[in-house]
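User: Hi! I have a protein structure encoded as tokens and I'd like to know what sequence might fold into it. I'm fairly new to this, so please keep things simple.
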């Protein structure tokens, strides 16, 4: 279960997502999500969808190629497959977030840590990333065909000369990441291990999540000015929101 602690004031909210758990929520345009790894070594996997048009989802290839990067960090934006920006990374103490490795499958978990199911182990069973995503997606009428390449926060993945991927570094206690949402976004997440994690025991490492209202974006904003493509992405968002209030779900 998540541990929920409302912050003082009308705009704050915080919760702890334990390791091997999943959650989803709609984050409004103009809100900010701060993700903190309290113990070190956590992995938070994210998928993003347009809550009004669920066919629009996070697009990892476009996100990487338009910003000429292999990793995600401060200054980068996360794009949809419609060329719009779901969110921007405004703060990042870790410096490398993976979006090419996908998520762990039931077979990955069984091979590394053995098979343990809910019927016999209850809350101590070993959840996997794909099933965790599917449980949350089902709440919105989505399923296997709607999965896409996800973001793995706090996981550095590198390729060697032969193209072999390896998990080379994970976050330390206190590392954090801040996402500013540029449009209303359905965020689906889980805290299961990274699929390349080779730890001897199943790592049950959770994250702290805190929500507040983001300050208005300035003209010298790092994400806006990171590259010309980001400016075009923000222009696409402006057209999408044209004539609408500053916040709240759009209608069609």
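Assistant: Happy to help. Inverse folding works backwards from shape to sequence: for each of the 252 positions I chose a residue that suits the local structure. Here it is:
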């Amino acid at each position: 279960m998540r541990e929920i602690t409302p912050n003082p004031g009308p705009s704050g909210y915080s919760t702890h997502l334990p390791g091997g758990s999943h959650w989803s929520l709609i984050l409004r345009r103009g809100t900010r999500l701060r993700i903190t790894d309290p113990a070190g070594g956590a992995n938070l996997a994210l998928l993003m969808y347009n809550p009004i048009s669920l066919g629009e989802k996070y697009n990892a290839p476009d996100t990487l190629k338009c910003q000429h990067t292999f990793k995600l960090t401060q200054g980068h934006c996360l794009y949809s497959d419609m060329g719009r920006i779901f969110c921007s990374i405004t703060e990042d103490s870790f410096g490398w977030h993976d979006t090419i490795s996908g998520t762990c499958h039931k077979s990955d978990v069984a091979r590394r840590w053995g098979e343990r199911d809910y019927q016999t182990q209850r809350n101590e069973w070993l959840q996997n990333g794909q099933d965790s995503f599917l449980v949350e997606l089902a709440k919105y009428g989505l399923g296997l065909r709607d999965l896409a390449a996800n973001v793995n926060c706090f996981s550095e993945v590198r390729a060697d000369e032969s193209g072999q991927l390896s998990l080379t570094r994970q976050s330390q206690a206190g590392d954090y990441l801040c996402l500013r949402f540029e449009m209303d976004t359905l965020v689906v997440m889980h805290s299961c291990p990274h699929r390349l994690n080779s730890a001897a025991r199943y790592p049950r490492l959770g994250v702290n999540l805190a929500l507040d209202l983001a300050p208005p974006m300035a003209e010298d904003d790092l994400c806006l000015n990171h590259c010309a493509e980001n400016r075009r992405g923000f222009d696409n968002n402006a057209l999408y929101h044209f004539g609408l209030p500053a916040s709240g779900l759009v209608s069609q």
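A useful reference point when you look it over: The CA atoms of residues 16 and 208 lie 4 Å apart. Feel free to ask if any position seems puzzling.
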